[in-house]
Design brief:
alpha/beta, TIM Barrel, eight-stranded parallel sheet, globular, binds S-adenosylmethionine
Length: 354
C-alpha cells in the first residue's frame, strides 16, 4: 500500500516517486487534478516564450547552447524583433510574455530594461525574465522597468552534483536559491525548477528538490525531463561517471516527470506549474495534455521566429522548430479547449490571479 496522500512529507514524496502500481498512480493523478482545480482553477495561462539570445557564457554540462556545447551559430534578437514577437503574443491573447536566453554578457542591462518598458507600454502584458544569474543592479533595473517575474531553476539540491554539472557557476545551489529570494524581496514573483533524470539524480535528491519548492514557497515551478544532448559533456563520459547505481538513479522518462509534477502540485497547491516543452518532446502526441491533467496549469507557446528557434536547441528535437507562432498558438488553444478547460487572458500571476 502506498502512503496516504493527505500526510505528505519528504519520505512520503520519495515513496510515491517510486510507486509502480497503476491503481495507486491513478489515485495520485486524480488527487493532483482535484487540487489543481480547487486551488488554481480550470484556466490554463498561456505565456508567450521569446528566446531572445542563444549566446551563453556558461558551461552547464547538460545544455545544448552552453559555451561548452561546441561551435554553434549564435544570435541575439534586436529590440524591434522582440517587440514584433510580443505584439504577436498580445494578438493571440497571451497575458504574459517570457523573455528567455542564455546567460549572455552581450545582453546589456539597459537594453533589456528598454525592451521590458516597451513591451509593457505597448501590450500591458505581464513580463517574465529568464536570463540566468545577473547582477543585482540589472535585476533591480529590470524590475523597475516593469518585469514581473523571474525564472531561475536551481536544477538540483544535491550540492556536489550541482557543482559537477555547473563547473563554472560562481556559487553553490544555496547561493542560487539566495538569489531567487533576493529577487522576491525586489518584488518579483520567483520561479524555479529541476530536470528529471539528470545522471547522478537519486530518488532522495528528487524528493528533496520537491520538498525544497515547498520550503521556499516558489511562485512558479518548471519540471521537465532531462534530454541528453550528444554535444554536451553530460551526454558522454561525465554522465557515465555521475550516474547513480540503477536502483537509485532517477530515469528521465515521462512517467517519473509526471509523478514529480503531480507531487509538486500536492505540496505547493497554489503555485503556477507549466506543462513543459521537454515533456512534449518525450511524448509528442500526449505529453503536454498529460502534464495539464496531472497538476500543471500553464503552457508556454513559443513565439520565437523559426529562424532563431532552430538555433535555440537546448536539447535535441526541441519541439516544432519549423512551425510558425500562429500554428503553435492555435494548437495550444485547441488542446486546452479539448480538455474542457479555458485559456486565460489576464496576466495569470500567483498574486491577484485572474
Ligand atoms: N540561461 C537561463 C538559465 O540558465 O536559467 C535560461 C535558459 S536555460 C537554457 C533554461 C532551462 O533549460 C534550464 O534551467 C534547464 O533546466 C533547461 N535545460 C537545459 N538543457 C536541458 C536538457 N538537456 N534537457 C532538459 N532541459 C534542459
Amino acid at each position: 500500500m502506498p502512503p496516504a496522500l493527505d500526510r505528505l512529507d519528504r519520505d512520503v514524496v520519495r515513496a510515491w516517486l517510486t510507486e509502480g502500481d497503476g491503481a495507486a498512480l491513478d489515485a495520485l493523478w486524480r488527487r493532483a487534478d482535484e487540487v489543481r482545480r480547487a486551488r488554481v482553477g480550470d484556466v490554463v495561462h498561456l505565456r508567450g516564450l521569446v528566446e531572445i539570445t542563444n549566446f551563453c557564457a556558461r558551461q552547464c554540462a547538460y545544455c545544448g547552447i552552453a559555451a561548452c556545447a561546441g561551435p554553434l551559430p549564435r544570435y541575439r534578437m534586436t529590440h524591434d524583433e522582440i517587440l514584433v514577437c510580443a505584439r504577436q503574443g498580445r494578438d493571440f491573447g497571451f497575458g504574459t510574455i517570457v523573455l528567455q536566453g542564455g546567460e549572455d554578457p552581450g545582453l546589456s542591462g539597459p537594453f533589456v530594461a528598454g525592451v521590458v518598458r516597451a513591451i509593457k507600454a505597448e501590450t500591458g502584458a505581464a513580463i517574465t525574465l529568464s536570463l540566468g544569474e545577473r547582477s543585482e543592479a540589472d535585476l533591480r533595473a529590470w524590475r523597475e522597468a516593469g518585469a514581473d517575474r523571474y525564472l531561475l531553476r536551481f536544477e538540483t539540491t544535491d550540492a556536489a552534483l550541482y557543482k559537477r554539472i555547473h563547473p563554472d557557476l560562481p556559487g553553490t545551489v544555496s547561493d542560487r536559491i539566495g538569489q531567487l529570494l533576493r529577487m522576491r524581496d525586489m518584488g518579483y514573483e520567483i520561479g524555479t525548477g529541476v530536470m528529471v533524470g539528470v545522471p547522478g539524480q537519486t530518488w532522495d535528491t528528487l524528493a528533496n528538490d520537491i520538498w525544497t519548492f515547498r520550503d521556499y514557497d516558489m511562485d512558479m515551478i518548471g519540471i521537465g525531463p532531462y534530454l541528453a544532448d550528444p554535444r554536451t559533456p553530460l551526454a558522454g563520459t561525465l554522465g557515465a561517471e555521475l550516474a547513480a547505481p540503477p536502483s537509485e538513479q532517477v530515469p528521465n522518462d515521462e512517467l517519473t516527470t509526471l509523478k514529480a509534477v503531480a507531487l509538486t502540485r500536492l505540496v505547493c497547491p497554489d503555485t503556477n506549474i507549466p506543462s513543459t516543452t521537454a515533456l512534449s518532446i518525450l511524448d509528442p502526441s500526449a505529453g503536454r495534455a498529460n502534464g495539464l491533467c496531472r497538476g500543471a496549469n500553464v503552457v508556454m507557446p513559443n513565439l520565437t521566429p523559426p529562424e532563431y528557434r532552430v538555433l535555440y536547441q537546448i536539447y535535441p528535437g526541441k519541439a516544432a522548430v519549423h512551425e510558425t507562432a500562429d500554428v503553435l498558438a492555435d494548437k495550444v488553444i485547441a488542446l486546452v479547449g479539448g480538455l474542457g478547460r479555458t485559456t486565460g487572458s489576464g496576466p495569470g500571476g500567483r498574486r491577484g490571479r485572474d
